[in-house]
Amino acid sequence: MATTETAAGTPRRGGRGARERILRAAVELFARDGIHVTGIAKLTDVAQVSTRTFYQHFPSKEALVSAYLRYVESDPEGPVHGEAVLERTDLSARERLLALFADSPPAKVMRGCPLHNAAVEAAGTMPEAAALVERHKRGFPQRLIEPAAEAGAHEPEPLGRRLAVLFEGANALSTSLNDTLPYQDARELARVLINQATGPN
User: Fold this and answer.
1) Centroid of chain to Cα 127
2) Measured in whole angstroms, how far is the alpha carbon of residue 46 from the centre of its chain?
3) Which residue spans of the chain are classified as CATH 1.10.10.60?
4) What is the pLDDT of residues 141-183, one digit of tens each?
5) CATH 1.10.357.10 residue window(s) in the chain
6) Structural class in CATH, domain 80-198
7) Which tens digit of pLDDT belongs to each residue from 70-125?
8) Residue 12: which H helix or E strand, with range?
9) Class of the 3-59 domain?
10) Angle at alpha carbon of residue 129, lines to 126 and 131, rounded to 5°
11) How far apart are the C-alpha atoms of 27 and 56, rounded to whole Å?
């Protein structure tokens, strides 16, 4: 594989795998430092690619941010906290809804939802990124409405919407407090909502 060097002599790798390395660098740096603070120079340094290689894959930083959002959205093991549990087939619908509120693994700093964080940073400056986040967030309640109906909710649509609000609130508060306690409280509230929605009319 061909390599180039920066003025400081740091090796840069191009070729196959460069796009993946850039996206992984974006996952790391955007979570730790934020989108606006993270410059192209830092991204290329961590990804070990040249600036030329970067722009061959991403014509602008906004193009990278949009690709990054699609990347984290599609990664079942990625930082979009907990949503992959909704696709599990070994749990009942009720168990899937409650498992959504499981605590995150302990971390020194809780980063929160990368889609939400990107929406805040991209507001008014990155329309494509903002549209991607909005599409995901608008679709998320529907992913809860379906298991709510399967769990026997008398009115699955309002239950799904309310659980979505509860989940987003737990994500935001746990990030602000750097504490998993909001997930514990949200899970108990979710249990109450599900019991009410599936109990006798």
Assistant:
1) 18
2) 21
3) 3-59
4) 999 999 999 999 999 999 999 999 999 999 889 888 888 899 8
5) 80-198
6) mainly alpha
7) 998 887 565 565 688 888 899 999 999 999 888 655 555 667 788 888 888 877 78
8) strand 11-13
9) mainly alpha
10) 105
11) 19
